[in-house]
Amino acid sequence: MTQIFNKKSQTSKRKILRNRMPPSELLLWPRLNNKQLNGFRFRRQYGIDRYVVDFYCPKLRLAIEIDGGYHRSSDMKEYDPARQAAIEAIGIKFLRFSNKEIESDLEGVMKKLFNALPPYEGGRVGLGVKEKI
């Protein structure tokens, strides 16, 4: 069976990306880390096939991508949809948010994320687990 998650060939790339997270990812990560979102564990800079997504929840098969300014370039306008389609083709749901959304309305982004999740199933109580909004 071919490994599709966190390939060893991407280890250094993922490490560099984790150490150079843009401000919008730095704002969102503390809200996802330590099972704070409905008790689900998220990983940052997670390798899926030949791609690396910003955040990923293995249990939900959910990828979260934060689009910065470089995503508006002509090259990325073609690359991003093809990348997303390839990831979705292996059964992974994809959610996208812009840097601007994260920086100007983090609570709104959290509500959208929360509403995309199944009901709370355990994990750590008291770390931001809320009723569905």
Describe this structure in words.
There is one protein chain. The chain is of the alpha+beta class. It has a domain at 39-52 and 80-116. 38% of the residues lie in helices and 19% in strands. It has five helices and four strands. It has helices at 11-19, 23-32, 74-88, 99-104, 106-115; strands at residues 43-48, 51-57, 62-67, 93-98. A four-stranded mixed sheet has the order 1-2-3-4, sandwiched between helices. The relative contact order is 0.18. The model is unreliable at 124-133 (pLDDT under 50).
User: SS-based structural class?
Assistant: alpha+beta
- What share of residues are in beta strands? 15-25%
**Overall spatial form:** globular
- Biggest sheet strand order reads 1-2-3-4
Percent of residues in helical segments?
Answer: 25-40%
Query: Can you count the helices?
Result: 5
Distance between the termini: 41 Å
Q: What is the CA-atom radius of gyration, in angstroms? A: 15 Å
Q: What series of H and E elements makes up the topology?
A: HHEEEHEHH
Summarize the structure.
By secondary structure, this protein is of the alpha+beta class. The chain has a domain at 39-52 and 80-116.
Describe the protein's topology:
Layout: H1 11-19, H2 23-32, E1 43-48, E2 51-57, E3 62-67, H3 74-88, E4 93-98, H4 99-104, H5 106-115
Descriptive labels:
133 residues; alpha+beta; 4-stranded mixed beta sheet; 5 helices; 19% strand; globular; disordered C terminus
